[in-house]
Amino acid sequence: MPKKIRLGILGGGGDSLIGVLHRVASFINDNYEIVGAVFNPNYEDNVNFAKEIDVPTNRIYKDFDALVEEELKLPEDERIQVCSILTPNFLHFPMAKKLLENGFHVICEKPMTTTYEEAKILQDLLAKSGKVFAVTHTYTGYPMVRQMREMIKAGALGKIHKVDARYYQGWINAIIHDKEKRSSVWRLDPKKAGISSCMGDIGVHAFNMIEFTTGLQIKSLLCDFNYMYDDNVMDVDGTVLIRMDKNVKGVIRASQVATGEENGLAIAIYGEKGAFRWEQEKPNFLYKMSDTEPVQIYKPGHAYNSELSLDGTKLPPGHPEGIFDAMANIYLGAARAIRGEKYNDGEFPTMLDGVRGLNFIESTVASHKQGNVWVDME
Amino acid sequence: MPKKIRLGILGGGGDSLIGVLHRVASFINDNYEIVGAVFNPNYEDNVNFAKEIDVPTNRIYKDFDALVEEELKLPEDERIQVCSILTPNFLHFPMAKKLLENGFHVICEKPMTTTYEEAKILQDLLAKSGKVFAVTHTYTGYPMVRQMREMIKAGALGKIHKVDARYYQGWINAIIHDKEKRSSVWRLDPKKAGISSCMGDIGVHAFNMIEFTTGLQIKSLLCDFNYMYDDNVMDVDGTVLIRMDKNVKGVIRASQVATGEENGLAIAIYGEKGAFRWEQEKPNFLYKMSDTEPVQIYKPGHAYNSELSLDGTKLPPGHPEGIFDAMANIYLGAARAIRGEKYNDGEFPTMLDGVRGLNFIESTVASHKQGNVWVDME
Amino acid sequence: MPKKIRLGILGGGGDSLIGVLHRVASFINDNYEIVGAVFNPNYEDNVNFAKEIDVPTNRIYKDFDALVEEELKLPEDERIQVCSILTPNFLHFPMAKKLLENGFHVICEKPMTTTYEEAKILQDLLAKSGKVFAVTHTYTGYPMVRQMREMIKAGALGKIHKVDARYYQGWINAIIHDKEKRSSVWRLDPKKAGISSCMGDIGVHAFNMIEFTTGLQIKSLLCDFNYMYDDNVMDVDGTVLIRMDKNVKGVIRASQVATGEENGLAIAIYGEKGAFRWEQEKPNFLYKMSDTEPVQIYKPGHAYNSELSLDGTKLPPGHPEGIFDAMANIYLGAARAIRGEKYNDGEFPTMLDGVRGLNFIESTVASHKQGNVWVDME
Amino acid sequence: MPKKIRLGILGGGGDSLIGVLHRVASFINDNYEIVGAVFNPNYEDNVNFAKEIDVPTNRIYKDFDALVEEELKLPEDERIQVCSILTPNFLHFPMAKKLLENGFHVICEKPMTTTYEEAKILQDLLAKSGKVFAVTHTYTGYPMVRQMREMIKAGALGKIHKVDARYYQGWINAIIHDKEKRSSVWRLDPKKAGISSCMGDIGVHAFNMIEFTTGLQIKSLLCDFNYMYDDNVMDVDGTVLIRMDKNVKGVIRASQVATGEENGLAIAIYGEKGAFRWEQEKPNFLYKMSDTEPVQIYKPGHAYNSELSLDGTKLPPGHPEGIFDAMANIYLGAARAIRGEKYNDGEFPTMLDGVRGLNFIESTVASHKQGNVWVDME
Lengths: 378, 378, 378, 378
Description:
The structure is a homotetramer. Chain A is of the alpha/beta class. Chain A folds into two domains: 5-139, Rossmann fold (3-Layer(aba) Sandwich); 142-315 and 351-369, 2-Layer Sandwich (Dihydrodipicolinate Reductase, domain 2), CATH 3.30.360.10. Chain A has helices at 17-28, 43-52, 64-73, 89-101, 116-129, 143-153, 173-176, 179-184, 190-193, 198-214, 307-311, 323-338, 351-369; strands at residues 5-10, 32-38, 82-85, 105-108, 133-135, 160-168, 220-226, 237-243, 249-255, 264-271, 275-279, 286-289, 295-298, 374-376. The mean pLDDT of chain A is 93.
């Protein structure tokens, strides 16, 4: 009979979509209670938002530093246990760093940091701290993604020899084709958004999905970006040739100019004995193929599913799971870790996933900028 | 800046799936706080469950009557404002009746009552009470179901002339084909489950979906049930021929022995100018057809969607909505009504939907038992 | 090393679509050669069409009677062996009758005749003649339809307990909603089109599909038609409740006013151990479902397919089969029968299928006209 | 009222699948008559096969040279007008060369030759000959592929900025993973199959599909192959980064080890105003997407389709077109050209398509072998 975990929120106020997603996810499995927050840099907006969503205002702080300072004054059994970092990317690193240094668990949006170097600093810090650190690669929380991972681990595909992951969106078209807009939007400003737009924002999810489901690591890559216009220096489209183990190859395709695509994350994994295909927009349908048998469609909530998949399914077959469920599964895993309970590998993405992600992003930029050469990942 | 609505829960404890669904739905839009409950008939289980989900135990009551009695003693601004009834069907009526008589709003699972007569009694009571009464026909909360309704209302299909709704499941096979099981399960015992199994449990959702989306009323019907075995007296499958306005006809197909079907609610609506097709298991895809134009696929969250649809969409296009979102939309509409805020027709199913549902179920049974004759609905 | 079968064609000239379909089907498996024809009632058009498609004009006759008379004068090894009847429905019976009486094999479009009585007369005649008679229920020629039949026969679904077949089209909307057009089109004139429009034209295919795939016979039915307008006496939409063996029930849904539907023939068959779903517009995908296993998608051309299915597949998996292939499979089966070679049950629809079809159509009309009562089939 | 074109066939005897495909395609639109052939290198098999498919044996020749020699002796109005080359790849070039030199039209399977150099020799020869030369890139014959091309030409997508084409199959798994088989199969022997397996056999179709539909030319490429095993020297998988006009980029993905994939050719084309997605295994469904409107599904046979698309559709909407229809459309276009009739650009792939294909294949091999560098196409 667990007591709810005391959760602090950084960012995610107002109309923030990521704010809704994290809040709902924290509610779904009855594990968290929001006790403190800095939803907004403007203190008045901050307090008003807390009232709007009915969070007590006594622990709504004027800024992040105040939150840390004041919370540390509270007795340990009242203090925030874990903070969710939902702020702009460049704040992830300083916030995560300070939180770890002061004994808080962390749930951090991706990209975990803006550079691989920062990511490795956090990694060292975490090792010493003994705390829980979850990076919200939301899509790994879908029951059928977990099903892929478990079946692959159990050998259902045999040796994997080819992987193809895609993340296509079209939303940046309205910006990139407009000279005014593309020169003013923060997403295309390297100072604000980091060294990559498309690969850093969505390509990294495709990368993470491959490593999460297959259990393999990408060893080297060769990347070609498209900036679309000469006056734009941020990638809005890119294709990455990848090499994993010897003769295991693949491709990651990411685009923000794939007109009409909404949130088109998809993966296909081919092995000696079978293959999987899955698409995020129809998350409850997992296709298992082989060269000799009829295609099989796996769906959530069945007795034939793996334990990890069933753990992330709350309702019987035929009741569609959505994105809130996926994020909620990650919060559930993190809750178990925070409470020191037993949990399975794969229940939530750890800092290691964040570190790999930054390594990936920087490698793609290096490959493209050096003229589409192969770059080794660490 | 609204204060959260004080919610009481009746039933839904332990592993109850419907309990999870309502609880999550109440959280999602930050509108409700669970302040009191009778989760379970056993008081110890009841309290333990409250602890497990971290609801304060001071207002966990030993039974429904105690809840009403004790809550009425509290000052009005602390008292439960609305109760969700998640108990077995035969308890819906007495609970809903007493709640309305004592000034509580009600959110009630379907079927609203076990007889049409009871439903009409509640209807009279509600008219006098001035309270809000929502029946959780969950599926009307999906953004694309709302989109159909609004577009039909705006004339997108022209005059509707044919409707075809289906609700197919296969789960009762494991019971019905086993003589022992089918004679002992409460679902097939008319004393416990009411006069209909298949039509009362799922056919009524298909019925409701037709009336919700088209705005038309079914005037008469002819029904054929299948009991599968001579020693079973409850329908596990049924087909209903329906007539709406003159020369507007259709069919409702419901089955619990449709092997391999999970939760196969679907609707097709054909009009002079166009048609819609929608399936619950892929709720984010609405197909609009015409005789002369390419088929169109509507998806949630786009600027082209209706206000009612967008109101029920929390995230941008491509982030799959699931069943929790659908139920949450109904809770949101009810919250607005409870607070006396403005809300649109169709935001949540009202008691009238419940009354129509019971009228439908009793009419199907009458039609079948009288030898598949046409029966008028009121 | 067979010699090609000498084929005569009745009807199907000019832009006739059914003409193209039969001609191509006869070519596909290298079994037939068109040697004589009456493509058109106008002799000049008839000859010109023969030239256009490069059929020798010496055996293009001025009318059907001339064709029979002249062909009988030819030596038996030059004479037409089989005639395809592609004329308007009311001509099917007299032509088929005379052909059988004069020793020709027959391939006949459906409906085989315009009345059940005529159908039974042909049936008697055929029994005496020892000839081959194929009715072109084209859709039974699809490889995956054959796969269903064979797997059901082999027990893959266990005892079947529910069947649901649909044939929805929308093309008659443009006619039925126009008072002028609906009173002048031959399709809605009982003198020209027989006693039923929708059920006779397409409902009968759904009926045939059920009996072909399940091996069960429909014993009784109850039907409701929709005429849409009071000045129209032909059904353009209808739903049929059906009963097969005891407690085996189902529904046939047919419509010509299902706006936006093209050629929406589909079937779902539910049994104790499993179920099938198949749609004509995606003919290469057969879905096998069960309550406990992942859904399976069967596709043509695989080693796992039945002999009958593989016999109707000419290319490797992944090369889409279309409607020409389906019709060609029926011509192939008929060719084997005409040559007296061994063939399997199910390779082509026989006269019995035609007889059952007429029995079905007349029964639906009787049920509707008598006030939606149950009518027994023979 | 055209007379049928006199067709000769080279190869395609016995169980040859490509033989069936070409023969059926030549029948479908009543344009061709097979008058001579060398179906098989063995003369007895050759003649027997002719008897089996009922082709007169008097012009079945012992070899290709005899065919040319003897046909040239016949009067021009009896002589073969066009030859279809269905032999192993290395024979395409010498046969096509001799046919052109002797005044025959040619229909040639792809790859047109085994080297780019040979392709250019044919190109020169063709320019002088004034003959028709069709390369059977079958997939361009599908009505919805033609629809894409025409709509793109008419500006439906605006300026195209990204292209993604895939051709995935899994059939070589059974060979490549078996040391014995992979060292003995002709497909993986460069002497017999040319310099590339995967890219030469299927990647080139994806390449052709891009250039056919978009009207753009690929200017340079960078390629990575996978040989899977060190003792194998032929690509069985490859990914190609492509650049078309400035800032117009894309990817071609081809694989023969994509386990469970059958014949997975697919294309996605993204432009400023809209996008297309199409898959060969569901050839009758063309998806048009935009950032602001509902997705549209185009299907064959509608009045809204382009002239070129409708020209390739023989039946009304809802009657599935298959691979035979696609090939038949190419034969139809070639027939018009052979007869000197008017035909539209795009009705059949010309030698230019063959030349581009060889240029592509050689470029991919060069890119891979030189260490994944960019290679310009001519």
